[in-house]
Design a protein that fits this description.
There is one protein chain. Helices cover 15% and strands 33% of the residues. The chain is an alpha+beta fold and 215 residues long. α1 packs antiparallel against α2. The longest helix has 17 residues.
Amino acid sequence: MCDLSHHDHGDFGFIVDVPEVRALIDETRRLTGTIPEHAARVDALRPAFARLLAAEGWLPDAFAQPDTTSGMGGGIGQYALYRDEAGELCLFSLVVPPGSSTPVHDHLAWGLVGVYRGTQLDTTYARLDDGSDEARATLQVSSRQTVSAGDFYTLLPPEGDIHYVKTVSEMPSVSIHLLANDTACVWRHKYDPEAGTVTPFRSGYSNVKCPPEPA
């Protein structure tokens, strides 16, 4: 795991406190208060999110490194950049080493995901069963797309919420995620499409702690 000791931050709020991040969070807050419908809100957020992806120099090097202790496995680092204490909004970087893939997983929140550095292959699944068995799922690949620096896509569960990404560039890919929950600290799901199984998991962040589980 990389050394984050030189970053003086708490576990919530602006962990990376720079104007670029503040501008995106402020715009997200403004639009959340004025646009109640998720799809319209996410669409309205696209210009602000594109500006963050296009800006250079705002992401500290420590938040763009692989993490061998990650709960995602594969050396994948997941670094909180902003966290709402209410658990209703987060911004984080996801660092995937060359050739590594995330598990097939869901997010359980609306949001935007874009690549800041490198290139990813994004594979999305459609769920064909009714979800009545919490431990089983029938999945079918619905789309594949190559996502390069500056490209991004929306998440509007249940549509497109189950996917995995693989880094296909020679350098680690760094993607930026804006999601309407505390993604790494909520219990969500890993899927094995071939076995048809569903496993609860909490990935955790590489740089901050999740709240303790209730006793």
